[in-house]
Specification:
119 residues; DNA binding; transcription regulation; single chain; two-stranded antiparallel sheet; Arc Repressor Mutant, subunit A; DNA-binding
């Protein structure tokens, strides 16, 4: 499940974010506790707690004292907006720059993209 490319706590946070974006975790749904998460994935509870704390700081999760952690009501929209912004900055803008650099007309790029949208 976890790889060596980034710290485990960041991978935990990313996995939970993915679950929210895809709808596997709904708004106001309770998530596993850090201890349950640590036991399930056989990791240090402090590592799981660090990932959860990051999500709380980002407004993706919130705590109900004595009950546990829950998905924030606006988490999915928040995450999707951030990913959309990142998509354009990380994928579309460099693609356009590369197309210009190698002489591919923008209309050809758009036509190619439309082929995927129609399938």
């Amino acid at each position: 499940m976890f790889d060596e490319r980034s710290p485990i706590y960041l991978q935990i946070a990313e996995q939970i974010k993915n679950d929210i974006v895809t709808g596997a975790l709904a708004e106001d749904e309770q998530v596993m506790s850090t201890n349950q998460y640590a036991a399930f994935y056989r990791i240090n509870p402090a590592t799981a707690a660090k990932g959860f704390a990051q999500l709380v700081d980002e407004g993706v999760l919130y705590k109900k004292r004595g009950i546990g952690m829950f998905v924030s009501p606006n988490a999915r929209d928040l995450l999707r907006t951030g990913r959309q912004d990142g998509f354009f900055a990380d994928v579309v803008d460099p693609m356009i720059r590369e197309a210009k650099a190698i002489g591919v007309p923008l209309r050809d790029v758009i036509q190619h993209i439309r082929k995927y949208g129609d399938s």
